[in-house]
Design a protein that fits this description.
This protein has 9 helices and 10 strands. It has about 280 residues and is α/β, with parallel strands linked by helices. It has 2 domains: about 120 residues, Rossmann fold; about 120 residues, Rossmann fold. Helix 5 links the parallel strand 6 and strand 7.
């Protein structure tokens, strides 16, 4: 059975990530798998002083640094296990029936790719341990993960509030149709008020396709507010999101149109930094 892969690192955002994962698990009726990775940090020890001290003294210092690194690794391993136990208990208390945990050494994105076959949805915080207190900063793994993941990724800000609405931007092109179909088939967003938004572009028959997209969503039971707007893509969507108190944003991945460049280009990364609601990126 596929699972909700939930990345935790003990940062301040971990609580919001856990709450979002619990919500997704219940919506999709899927088990939770909490993933914690132990990544090797660059250490600056006795090697920095090569040539400045004698070989004998340097050897002693290197031995001491090795012992310190080993001790640090043991502590990090134990802290990670305690973290996984804590969030697992939180999820179970919140009513999730199946909760698992996994601890890996190495790169986070590589660890996620290794369990691709177990994945239904990936939940990750917008900023990690290295950005505590700076929730507008994107974690170093986010862009890499969004470009490599073959499954939907839900990026969580510093707090999580159960969404009652979502916005999907629609440009009438093939990737927009794929994203739309994934929303319909996925189940995660069923029951939420859908805001279907299209920013005017040069796509032929864009308005006709937009109307058909609305009909398709409504035919599957979605309550839809459809808005065809004009203006700068990034600014227009952000203004719409604020004006309508959107609880979650859905984005398609990759492409060459202005709207799709917005989705995984520099504007999207800026939106991820600015946006205070979860964002789901679909491949």
């Amino acid at each position: 059975m596929t699972k909700i892969i939930t990345c935790v690192d003990g940062s301040a955002i971990t609580s919001a990530v856990t709450e979002a994962a619990v919500w997704a698990s219940k919506k999709l009726n899927k088990p939770l798998l909490f993933l914690h990775t132990l990544e090797k940090e660059q250490q600056h020890g006795a090697d920095d002083y090569t040539g400045a001290i004698g070989l004998g003294a340097r050897t002693v210092l290197l031995d001491e640094m090795t012992k310190l690194d080993e001790q640090r690794s043991k502590v990090a391993l134990q802290l990670g296990k305690e973290l996984l136990g804590y969030v697992s208990r939180q999820a179970s208390t919140a009513g999730v029936g199946e909760v698992e945990s996994l601890q890996r050494h190495g790169d986070l994105v590589d660890s996620i790719n290794d369990i691709e076959g177990l994945t239904r949805l990936i939940v990750i915080g917008r900023s990690g341990k290295g950005h505590d207190g700076n929730f507008n900063a994107l974690g170093s793994h986010i862009e890499t993960l969004l470009r490599k993941a073959s499954h939907p990724v839900m990026v969580i800000p510093d707090t999580f509030k159960t969404p009652v609405s979502f916005m999907i931007a629609y440009d009438g092109r093939e990737t927009a149709e794929i994203a739309l179909q994934r929303v319909i088939d996925g189940g995660l967003l069923h029951g939420l008020h859908c805001h279907l938004v299209s920013v005017k572009n040069n796509e032929s028959n864009q308005n006709d396709k937009f109307v058909l997209a609305q009909q398709k969503l409504e035919g599957k039971g979605f309550n839809v507010t459809a808005s065809f707007i004009e203006g700068n893509i990034h600014e227009s969507l952000m203004e719409y999101k604020e004006a309508h108190d959107i609880g979650l944003i859905v984005m398609g991945a990759f492409g060459h149109s202005k709207l799709r460049q917005f989705f995984l280009g520099s504007n999207t990364l800026k939106m991820l930094e600015r946006c205070k609601v979860p964002m789901v990126v679909l491949r």
